Amino acid sequence: xxxxxxxxxxxxxxxxxxxxxxxxxxxxxxxxxxxxxxxxxxxxxxxxxxxxxxxxxxxxxxxxxxxxxxxxxxxxxxxxxxxxxxxxxxxxxxxxxxxxxxxxxxxxxxxxxxxxxxxxxxxxxxxxxxxxxxxxxxxxxxxxxxxxxxxxxxxxxxxxxxxxxxxxxxxxxxxxxxxxxxxxxxxxxxxxxxxxxxxxxxxxxxxxxxxxxxxxxxxxxxxxxxxxxxxxxxxxxxxxxxxxxxxxxxxxxxxxxxxxxxxxxxxxxxxxxxxxxxxxxxxxxxxxxxxxxxxxxxxxxxxxxxxxxxxxxxxxxxxxxxxxxxxxxxxxxxxxxxxxxxxxxxxxxxxxxxxxxxxxxxxxxxxxxxxxxxxxxxxxxxxxxxxxxxxxxxxxxxxxxxxxxxxxxxxxxxxxxxxxxxxxxxx
Length: 427
Ligand SMILES: Cc1ncc(COP(=O)(O)O)c(C=O)c1O
Description:
- With about 425 residues, the chain is an alpha/beta fold.
- It is built from 15 helices and 17 strands.
- The chain folds into 2 domains: about 40-65 and about 315-415, Alpha-Beta Complex (Aspartate Aminotransferase, domain 1); about 70-315, Type I PLP-dependent aspartate aminotransferase-like (Major domain) (Aspartate Aminotransferase, domain 2), CATH 3.40.640.10.
- Helix content is about 40%, strand content about 20%.
- The strands form 4 sheets. A 7-stranded mixed beta sheet has the order 4-12-11-10-7-5-6, sandwiched between helices.
- It is globular and about 60 Å long.
- The structure holds pyridoxal-5'-phosphate.
């Protein structure tokens, strides 16, 4: 049934039925539980409007909505491009894509000069791993235990969690995972000269929000380079000021050969990712641009969003620092008040993980928060951790509202499931 506004949105009931029939059915079950029978209908800024008229604050969206929903300047840039040239001929050079590449290089300081655009994070990971292997003529990649880099086969080889790798191990070869705190691990792994690249997330997002030790990373960079391997920082989740800096790795002075960005790169409006590479890593594409292509790479709509997104992120950077301080203070208080329920809080900038005493409690809290009007994200590799991802545009009133909801929901959690000897309010 078409909507009165001409759109083809279906009723919530129909949507759940379609999901049950045509998508993984458990998506329908989870969506129904979270939305209490409603689906998402529209959004603006920090808020998502549900089909039953309720409104939820969005501090989740898996780190995509750094600028909130439908940031007006991003929407205007995309709309302008939609009316000019929404898709590329791919025979003629597209100036929107070239401008986006130039902006991005400039944004990261100009040291890494070459860009590969993808549509999602896994695309960027796949591309850079392929380039590293081709550029070095080597086959092995070093990744980090707990790391998350996507689920397409090449990216999945780097993702550590067994849940996503089960039954596919024979396709996920050539990767060694090293412990995050082992400063000597890269030296040992690269010693025999067979490693093409070392790839890490400076802040592991899906692994429960774990910043890696910068001194360890510095040593890894030195050892990798000493043995002829490239260094790649996957900042698809942590970059673009999600963790305060444009790039966590570059701000720490790590001599990386590539930075990967994604998630909010298209302004939270369009899918876009990028591998921003040093010349020597990009060499295979300079020699033959057809060795890695995809039909929609460098899509004009997404590339039109990029300069508007970067400008908006920079405009709001000071706001990000304020929100980061608020998050740290408020979450420390939450941890203090419910030490048995909340066993740890970690984070940087606008990326925070809240460990619950067990995965069941984390699941229940996520559900409870949604019902009380706050959307947050789980962590793909840590079911006991809940992720809070406030957008840069969040106002103090919205932060206060979010924490009221969090505290009220924690007060309602059944602490008896934590274990014996706990008081009923979790203290
Ligand atoms: C650090 C990191 N790398 C790569 C990816 C994969 O991105 P995508 O899901 O867009 O393919 C993710 C997704 O969460 C991520 O957090």
